[in-house]
Amino acid sequence: MIAEAQPQFVGEATNWITNLRTYINDINEMKNQLYKWAAHKSGYDALVQIEHYHNQFHIQLINLHDVKHSIKLYMKEYSLQPDAKNVEKQNGLEDQYQFLIKELDNLKRDFTAFIS
Questions:
Q1: Residue 83 has what DSSP assignment?
Q2: What sign for the dihedral angle of Cα 13, 95, 107, 68?
Q3: Closest CA to 27 of 108, 114, 112
Q4: Which residue of 22, 24, 84, 89 shows the fewest CB atoms closer than 10 Å?
Q5: How far apart are CA 56 and CA 61, in angstroms?
Q6: Strand, coil or helix: what is 115?
Q7: pTM summary value
Q8: pLDDT tens digits for 7-61?
Q9: Three-state DSSP state, 45
Q10: Residue-number span of the structural domain to which 12 is assigned
């Protein structure tokens, strides 16, 4: 059963990486929107929020890179040792991925509401 789950995980992981690249593009687009929006703002509260979102975008890009790297590293390890039974590692990667996606979706929702 684990031998069957491994190729399925590799396929899922490939989809995750593709999806993470989409989120990277989304964050870069939100950064551009923030900079355009911020050009006309000077109030203290607006500046605090601008800094907050700027920092969040930077942090989330790092998180995206880290999770994407972890997934790629595991896929490489699996290709070298296909008989390895690393279900816990796979579950951990899936948990990291799902948590990050949830955080990114929340950030996107909050940012969209902020600039509206």
A1: T
A2: negative
A3: 108
A4: 22
A5: 8
A6: helix
A7: 0.85
A8: 677 788 899 999 999 999 999 999 999 999 999 888 999 999 999 999 999 999 9
A9: helix
A10: 2-115
- Among residues 25, 22, 26, 32, which one has the least CA distance to residue 54? 32
Tell me how far apart the alpha carbons of residues 83 and 94 are, in angstroms, rounded to a whole number.
20
CB 2, CB 85: distance < 8 Å: yes
> CA-CA distance, 52 to 93, in Å (whole number)?
28
Quote the number of domains for the chain. Answer: 1
Fill in the amino acid letter for 110: D
The answer to whether 86 and 9 are in contact (CB under 8 A) is no
Chain position carrying tokens 């006309």:
40
Question: Which residues are within 8 A (CB) of 62 and not within 5 positions of it... i.e. 6 or more apart?
Answer: none
The pLDDT tens digits of the residues spanning 63-109 come to: 999 999 999 998 888 777 766 667 778 888 999 999 999 999 999 99
